[in-house]
Design brief:
The protein contains 10 helices and 6 strands, in the order βαααααβαβαβαβαβα. Strands 3-2-1-4-5-6 form a 6-stranded parallel beta sheet, sandwiched between helices. The chain is an alpha/beta fold and 226 residues long. The structure holds magnesium ion (MG).
């Protein structure tokens, strides 16, 4: 296998174990307005920008007879819950080792995240091992047109590294993120949440991305690549 021109990393649920915390914050905010979110609904929110999620959740609240809300009314409830939770997020298993491995071998890296610059600063603060990832595309990046599942985040990350997206390996955990990386032409690796297996995996991630059970596997694949 050929070494990637660069590794493009999602952040939430891939490098940092934030997704259960994001889900808990959306669940508590929706519950505040009388709506329980299902596991499938929470999965559909994964990997998307905060405002896109807010539009989706307030739509679900209204459709089931709840109040007509603005995104800012919903986020006023959700954000304090999320911020208190997210600073506690631990790394995903193998993430610090993988970033250090790429850094040591001189494999270019970029962050391709739906999270805003401010949210990344909050979450990444306790994790100095993320610092070698110097090139970053945020969900509120002024040069970014469309969020995931559109390919723009990955295309912009590759462009900033000066490489072709089709020569990059992309790492994702969410259906929206996998779709984005596939549309950008990257070689896509997915780290699915542990509760998905069998048919649910194939349904959730069409297009047969390379499935990972642990990021340590990627270090092995990079060591085997030329
Ligand atoms: Mg993610």
């Amino acid at each position: 296998m050929v070494l990637p021109a660069a590794c493009l990393f999602d952040l939430d649920g891939l490098l940092l174990d934030t997704e259960p915390l994001h889900a808990r914050a959306w669940q508590q905010a929706a519950r505040h307005f009388g709506r329980e979110l299902s596991a499938d609904e929470l999965m559909a929110l994964r990997g998307r920008r905060r405002l896109d999620c807010a539009d989706q959740v307030r739509g679900w609240i209204t459709a089931s007879g709840g109040p007509a809300l603005s995104s800012s009314e919903l986020l006023a409830v959700r954000q304090p819950i999320a911020e208190a939770l997210l600073v506690q997020a631990p790394p995903m298993a193998g993430a610090p080792e993988l970033v250090a491995h790429c850094h040591r071998r001189g494999i270019p890296m970029a962050l391709a995240t739906s999270s805003s610059r401010e949210a990344v600063a909050l979450k990444a603060g306790p994790h100095p091992w993320l610092q070698p990832i110097g090139v970053r595309v945020h969900g509120d990046d002024p040069e970014l047109q469309r969020g995931k599942p559109a390919p723009d985040v990955f295309l912009l990350a590759a462009q900033r590294l000066g490489v072709d997206a089709t020569a990059c390996w992309a790492f994702e955990d969410s259906p929206a993120g996998v779709a984005a990386a596939q549309a950008a032409g990257c070689r896509v690796h997915v780290l699915p949440p542990p509760h998905l297996d069998g048919d649910a995996l194939a349904r959730t991630y069409p297009g047969e991305p390379t499935r990972l059970t642990d990021l340590h596997q990627v270090i092995g694949a990079l060591e085997a690549a030329q």
